[in-house]
């Protein structure tokens, strides 16, 4: 590792076996590791005994250290001559604010390198045997953030539907709003959806329902973040719990 360098490393979904070889090597040799709260302890255990670990964990819509503060830590430690790993859950450039940290390093004249990680959508799809694309169902995938500034003002029309898959990160708390938004933008209430909770971990869950029941299922099953929502016909090909069949049985009973 180069001293006075910041490495933005994707920690993936939590399983150390899913780290890239380069990510594991950098983690094991870093002088300083600045890590998110969602990074699994098994990955942090790969660090050197004398490495300094700095947590910048985020809690519901609030950073324990603001982003400007995180940027300042990275620059400060690198300018002091340390090899710094900024360890981020998933991939640094998929809703990880990695771009902001790269900009901060560049502005300070600090060398920076990005090492990609397996994002939640990829890991969750693999765990649930849910293909994000499929020759018979989807030839396009879109990633969106379900909890961000101006959510209600965004136009999601065309992001989901026939031949397309929509993956929503950070959408558990706003599931009802997402359902209303997608239906208002023209998506059928019967569109299949899956919720993948704690993907890539041993206690992960995969649940399946239809769009109009999304918020209800999240409440019934007490789904908690981190979780992603997948919308589209590819959900029908998954190994997720078949809530679609349960809903059909309930509808038949009530009829």
What does this structure look like?
With 255 residues, the protein is α/β, with parallel strands linked by helices. The chain folds into 2 domains: 5-115, Cobalt-precorrin-4 Transmethylase, domain 1 (3-Layer(aba) Sandwich), CATH 3.40.1010.10; 120-254, Tetrapyrrole methylase, C-terminal domain (Methyltransferase, Cobalt-precorrin-4 Transmethylase, Domain 2), CATH 3.30.950. It is 29% helix and 24% strand. It has a 6-stranded mixed sheet, with helices on both faces. A hairpin with a 7-residue loop joins strand 10 (192-197) and strand 11. It starts with a strand and ends with a helix.
CATH homologous superfamily designation of the largest domain: Tetrapyrrole methylase, C-terminal domain
Multimeric state of these chains?
A: single chain
Side-by-side strand order of the widest sheet:
8-9-12-10-11-13
Mean pLDDT, nearest integer? Answer: 89
Number of folding domains? 2
Uncertain ranges: none
Please report which band the strand proportion falls in: under 5%, 5-15%, 15-25%, 25-35%, 35-45% or over 45%. Answer: 15-25%
CATH architecture of the largest domain: 2-Layer Sandwich
**DSSP E strands, number:** 13
State the major sheet.
6 strands, mixed
Estimate percent helicity. Answer: 25-40%
Instruction: State the order of secondary-structure elements, H for helix, E for strand.
Output: EHEHEEEHEHEHEEHEEHEEH
- Using only C-alpha atoms, the radius of gyration works out to 20 Å
Determine the structural class based on helices, strands and strand pairing. Answer: alpha/beta
Specify the number of helices.
Answer: 8
Instruction: Give the overall silhouette.
Output: elongated
Gap between N and C termini: 66 Å
Q: What is the third-level CATH name, the topology of the largest domain? A: Methyltransferase, Cobalt-precorrin-4 Transmethylase, Domain 2
CATH class of the largest domain: Alpha Beta
